[in-house]
Amino acid sequence: MIRFTDRKDELTLLENSWVKDNAEFVVICGRRRIGKTRLILEFMKGKDGIFFIAEDTNKKTQINELKNKTAGYFDDDFLRRTDITEWRDLFEYLTKILPSKKKIYFVIDEFSYIIKNDSAVISALQKFWDTFLSNTKIFFLISGSLFGLMSERVLSSASPLYGRRTRDLLITPLTFKDSLGFLDMPFIEKIKTCMGIGGVPEYLLKTGSYKNSKSFFVNEFFNKNGYFYREPYFLLSQEFKEIKTYFTILNAVAYGNTKPTEIANFAGLNTREIYPYLENLIRLGFIERVTPIFGKRKSAGIYFIKDVFFDFWFNFVYGNRESIEKNEGKIDESKLNTYFGKRFEKLIRDEIAYKILKFSRVGRWWYKDKEIDIVGINEKTKEIIFGECKWKDNVNAEKVLQELKEKSKFVDWNKDKRKESYAIFAKSF
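-> structure tokens emitted (429 positions)
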């Protein structure tokens, strides 16, 4: 069974909903392999109810499988023998056998696969909730990996289910700290590996018995039979129809095209056409739009690949597929070091400056030819920290500090009132 870790907050929220003396309608979203099912299984321990995992099959098969699962729970031979072909008919029958006063869970995992095959299930489910479930003590939960479908058909204000859910959870990758616990490698190798695959539990489990990052990357990324070699094709094809366009856009950003005009030119689109694609990728957590921490102009935003795994794959695998297919794939060591430097900077900014040092706002700062990796501020105390990140050995901290102090003079925020501090983060000093 997949290791369960660092989901205490999510589990607590589910438990708090469970103890309520009324019906609950919970929606869980998150990319594939992020640990949604594992969280649900952990939550269900010691409780009674119906748990169904939908497969990406046809409508009739899905209905039949849920029908049989429910018939098994209630030992209902009539339901087993009855031929049901519509969701509304199945839900109508369930109103006759589900308890109204007993606390049980009713979970449909991977509900997005059901929506994919029959969008009418949404209206049928709305009626099921409005006329029956909402008046019971049942803990009703649906989850889905196709985030686009779940957002549009379940969570959006245009959905028939809008206003029905009592709680929704977005399951995100594990923190860097918890990700390290999956790996059996020297510390620096753990860091490198996590900067290549991120905090997706299933990905972390694939590190297995590897003792260093290089052997892991070579065998699992730079191998046509490696686990991660085709993974982005599967993930993107489930979310988008225009997969070639999205691949081109992600490749453009990986190549350093960070402005909309640059990305559009690379993809062969006009600038106006590029924005819907960028918004979709942002919504799914694949890319992000970054602005200077004190930036006010909308045009100052630039785009980066947010998802760690996608960032690594598009930087190193996508452009080397031909060589990999010939079993000639190799890691560009100099480019890899540059990549680690970029991810190290983001790691420090997100995990240290924001979560540990607890500054209210943390980001990058740039102006003309000046740039500072990390700027964190506390609005109340007027504290500000300036940080530089160096993915290098034997860094001259004193030299970097002096350069950082000079650049900090160009940051205007509360210039005569603030309390300044400085930090240098490096691979080694």
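The two ends are 41 Å apart (CA to CA).
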